[in-house]
């Protein structure tokens, strides 16, 4: 392949690696909140609704930045937005690690949301700039890095809690660090993301640019909402995002409280989502290069809906884990297929801005998921909330079919 179409070598391969590692650890830092949520809740004395709102804050602020970050990266440079996002997210995770109260934790969540919001749309724009013939595969690999972040999040949560339990037997300096408990999970994330920011600064040929940019909100809204098919895709993706953010935000809590699983088993179920996703996403991206993407997407959503229904009614850890595996296969196959389809649809000179506008809408609506499901969980039980998520997937698949 030409140098700029190589997935793991050459200039394009190096940048794909860098932005993917960055995305992996941004996801790890955000997703580690999920398996640690019961411990965070104990530290601050939270209600189920407050637990969900903490997750919603991270994702809601992140959603607000999707459109402006994409538009800015179309008019400035991808590197400008990527490095700025990494710097902000490093600061945000440090704030989460030292937050003395729930309001302070929420402030750190806002800063994380800002930094994370600046990053993924320019990253996907950069991937589209570098890869054309192998765009589906590149998107599969890049989005799979987020699933590796989920696996890392599960490992970080288990390690942080395990080390805290052995604090008394460690040397004084390590014991003081271990006594921070769940907070130590954010420290490796900070170190890696700082390294990624430095790598992009050194490797990128784009450089930096600062200028006033017209966001053209009205023109973008007309492109996205002026076509009935795109309107249905926005609603479908919003329902998908609602499910994804609820599942990744509250699955460990659901397994511990509704199924009475241990923290270790709940973390393993959470990690299973992303282990399967890391395998499925590149395969789905490659398959989407060969078959009709607008038919593949609803099929995987239907698979995810049936599997989630099984997770709700199953009782044994083995049966639940099997259901989570199939649910993950359907859920995680959707993004690379649909994002490549959307990139094919958007004009070249505004693709990142258009994708960012759509992401702002569907992630913003989806960010309400953890709060809604948390409130339902506190009132009627988490099983009822997760059963509703299965229905959302079926509706989303029907909307894609009619787009």
UniProtKB/TrEMBL annotation:
Specify one Pfam family: MFS_1
InterPro entries linked: MFS, MFS_dom, MFS_trans_sf, MFS_Transporters
Tell me which domain of life the UniProt entry assigns to the organism this sequence originates from. Archaea
Localized where? Answer: Cell membrane
* Gene Ontology terms: cellular component: plasma membrane
Topology relative to the membrane: Multi-pass membrane protein
Occurrences of domain Major facilitator superfamily (MFS) profile (ranges): 15-403
Give yes or no: UniProt keyword Transmembrane helix. yes
Q: Which UniProt keywords apply?
A: Cell membrane, Membrane, Transmembrane, Transmembrane helix, Transport
The answer to whether keyword Cell cycle applies is no
Q: What is its main location?
A: membrane
Please list every transmembrane segment annotated in the UniProt record, as residue ranges.
Answer: 12-32, 52-69, 81-99, 105-127, 148-168, 180-203, 233-255, 261-284, 296-313, 319-337, 358-376, 382-401
Q: What is this protein identified as?
A: MFS transporter
State the organism of origin: Halosegnis marinus
